[in-house]
TrEMBL record:
GO terms for molecular function: 3'-5'-RNA exonuclease activity; magnesium ion binding; polyribonucleotide nucleotidyltransferase activity; RNA binding. The gene is pnp. This is Polyribonucleotide nucleotidyltransferase. Belongs to the polyribonucleotide nucleotidyltransferase family. It is found in: Cytoplasm. InterPro entries: ExoRNase_PH_dom1, ExoRNase_PH_dom2, ExoRNase_PH_dom2_sf, KH_dom, KH_dom_type_1, KH_dom_type_1_sf, NA-bd_OB-fold, PNPase. Residues 631-699 form the S1 motif domain. Its main location: cytoplasm. Gene3D superfamilies: GHMP Kinase, N-terminal domain, K Homology domain, type 1, Nucleic acid-binding proteins. NCBIfam families: polynuc_phos, PRK11824.1. It comes from Thermosynechococcus sichuanensis E542. The lineage of its organism: Bacteria, Bacillati, Cyanobacteriota, Cyanophyceae, Acaryochloridales. It catalyses: RNA(n+1) + phosphate = RNA(n) + a ribonucleoside 5'-diphosphate. One of its GO terms (cellular component) is cytosol. Keywords: Cytoplasm, Magnesium, Metal-binding, Nucleotidyltransferase, RNA-binding, Transferase.
Amino acid sequence: MKGLEKIIPLDGRDIKVVLQKFAPQAAGSILISSGETAVLVTANRAAPREGIDFLPLVVDYEERLYAAGRIPGGFLRREGRPPEKAILIGRLIDRPLRPLFPQWLRDDLQVVATTVSLDENVPPDVLAVTGASIAVLLAQIPFNGPMAAVRVGLVGDEFVINPTYKEIERGGLDLVVAGSPDGVVMVEAGANELPEADMIEAIDFGYEVIQDLIQAQRDLLKELGIDIVKAEPPAIDPTLENFIYDRAVEPVKAILKRFEKDKNVRDAALDEVQGAIAQDIAALPEDHPVAVAAAENPKALPTLFKAVTKKLMRQQIIEEGVRVDGRRLDEVRPIWCEVGVLPERVHGSALFNRGLTQVMSVTTLGSPADAQALDDLHPEDSKRYLHHYNFPPYSVGEVKPLRSPGRREIGHGALAERALEPVIPPKEEFPYVIRVVSEVLSSDGSTSMGSVCGSTLSLMDAGVPIRKPVSGAAMGLIKEGNEVRILTDIQGIEDFLGDMDFKVAGTDSGITALQMDMKITGLPVAVIKQAIEQARPARLHILEKMLAVLDKPRPQLPPSAPRLLTLQIPPDMIGLVIGPGGKTVRGISEQYNVKVDISEEGLVTITAPNETNAKQARAAIEGLTRKLNAGDVYLGRVTRIIPIGAFVEFLPGKEGMIHISQLAEYRVGKVEDEVKIGDEIVVKIREVDSKGRINLTRLGIHPDEAEAARSSAVF
């Protein structure tokens, strides 16, 4: 079964698609590749389950280590729980797909993307996004596509499409843009303080290329004789709809006009109106058309009531320019911040409040051994800056069982990590591994950007010398026909009933992270430009409030933080420091109560509970790796005695021998008469012979030399 093969030219980095060859029982399948990276994407559809009132779309991204010619580690030697990167790519595929399905669709949908071959130059994620669109179209699922995605990098001063891993690492931009025929539908970006104008240009550059990918998909479908399915929404009983609408409009409008700032009060008032309508329906005779329609569709009341609330909220914003809490469209909610909110045992902490959203961020400093090892298909093998995000049920006043982090928590943590990564000091300046945990204590919109703000303060409270503080704001959108309104600092109801959630984070110099998700089928770049530009004054306003509390990193690390010292040793001396079976480094660690990490390049990092221990351990390693010269004087310890002399360890792992004739100015008849095992004695190096053997003496040592050796002893 050969299938259909097509090449899509793309800015010198062609994409190859193979259709109707792999996974023949899937409703839609495609192998999409570029270079030696290949992703198999399938799409399937099943009949709707009874009682479902949402779109049950599942998007899974799988990585197989055979794609990079590797065998998994661990006892089972097979892939297990997906790594964080795979979860993030799954979200990346889901986010531009989801808004393009009709929201009334209730069929079970599943898209599975599996990377089956990996080229070290070609990331698989954007291939998977474009492949998902083709697979869905081949499966004949109702879809407002085609949709495609590209990555935009910055090499020098030039934007490039689908850069290699190395180009992404060296450049100042990693931007993924997804688009449909109606416009941009998703943006995900990390940047090194890129100015707003440059970011807008990059998005526009990416969307222009997306047009070619969209047209290529249309050409493929035409060649196969497949039409894009555009299904009609199910009819709603007009009698029930009018009944609910007549009873909901005025009370809901009155509630929205109160400009209530507490969402709990507003939600309770709306629930009361909905409850009253439910009672009105229940009081009707069983054979009344409204009662019959409500009985046949129990989900109709909440669905239609939500539609009324959504329409009136949006109408108020479009026509009056006023939001449900009374704010102007470009106004940020009240902000207050506090640092050092936890006892000093915690290395750094901060509380960030914006309206009813509250995030507590906590910083912990660790040694290089605490870095996160990464076992996935991508080149990065470890991370020294970790950002984790938790969203407990009490943050929205709910009762739910606590579970391990889900996709949303992992995604929000990754976004905050990306926003702060550009300002984290390099390990050469600050060798600590840094973990920040953001605990969402109360949620009413924009918790991810609250995490960015709180974490900036927490890092500075811990004394981490970040280059610049970072703040963030979430922008929203209301679009009715040709009327568009951009909202600054959206709250929960505006996210829930609006058309866009656009998170923008950065310093006062430029953007460090972007994430845009849509609920409509696309936006022109001009509207995105307006949102990015409107976000800047909001970010700067929030940053001003933050810096009023703590304007720069604390000059000292907290007392509870471990102390790290580093030194560089020649790589050929690493084995000497480690010693046979790790004996030497283990001895240093135990003697000084420290942890010693040595990189392949010879960078030694010492982690200790206090500075004194760290300095003692560093002196021991410096001594161990020091070039030995005749005439150097040390304090040593006698380790062995033989008839012709004594062996003395004068540096950790370094021994020399004193011949019996060099033990004293006078003749020594028996070595044990002069020294015993365990004695501490001052010795001088006589010579290091051609075989590396060290000959020591106790003769000819000046008292000042002896005193200096005792004061700098590493034992």
